[in-house]
Amino acid sequence: DAEITQSPRHKITETGRQVTLACHQTWNHNNMFWYRQDLGHGLRLIHYSYGVHDTNKGEVSDGYSVSRSNTEDLPLTLESAASSQTSVYFCASSEGRQGLREQYFGPGTRLTVT
Amino acid sequence: GENVEQHPSTLSVQEGDSAVIKCTYSDSASNYFPWYKQELGKGPQLIIDIRSNVGEKKDQRIAVTLNKTAKHFSLHITETQPEDSAVYFCAATKYNFNKFYFGSGTKLNVKP
Lengths: 114, 112
Description:
The structure holds two protein chains of two kinds. Chain A is an all-beta fold. Chain A contains no helices and eleven strands. Chain A has strands at 4-7, 10-13, 19-25, 31-38, 42-51, 54-57, 64-66, 76-78, 87-94, 104-105, 109-113. In chain A, the strands form two sheets. In chain A, strands 2, 4, 5, 6, 9, 10 and 11 form a seven-stranded mixed sheet that branches. In chain A, strands 1-3-8-7 form a four-stranded antiparallel sheet, with no helix packed on it. By secondary structure, chain B is mostly beta strands. Chain B has strands at residues 4-7, 10-14, 19-25, 32-38, 45-51, 56-59, 62-67, 72-77, 86-94, 97-102, 106-111. In chain B, strands 2, 4, 5, 9, 10 and 11 form a six-stranded mixed sheet that branches. In chain B, strands 1-3-8-7-6 form a five-stranded antiparallel sheet, with no helix packed on it. Chain B is globular, with a radius of gyration of 13 Å. Chain B starts with a strand and ends with a strand. At the A-B interface, strand 4, strand 5 and strand 9 of A face strand 4, strand 5 and strand 10 of B.
């Protein structure tokens, strides 16, 4: 079955270190998204991509970067981790065709920055 | 950009009662409104959605209503069951604009 996976599921890192969170989907979806989830804020969009080599900033993109070299993967990089980036991170994908807009979410990565 | 507000942040009901969660949005151009359910330790999952050309949509015990004039939409769960306990998120987006704006979430607790 097609799916969307994230790795690692849990990560503890130190302030200032570079961290990369992986997201892989096997639906061949054009659109991929990264969100962070914090209590009281719901899901906030970090970066998103509408296809290979396309990336766009979301509402909370400072300190994060993404690259899309193929359809299946959208890794999220924290250039220099900060304690404020402690959060649960969700990757999502959607087909992107007109009228088909459901986003499918991965299981999440819990990141702790100490 | 779009701003979606969701209320209440927590909701506790007795099994068998109804639950209502409300959301408002700011961008009158938004025309697609999905609702997601997130169980503990999992990613959100779509449970129902509504488009702006429809005022109400039902799926078994779940219904969503949309008032475009007032820019608000609501999730209604009837005959609640303990397995309905989860966090629910509303979202809004524009046609051909796949980026979602999510509400802050409602933690629903259904007491047996």
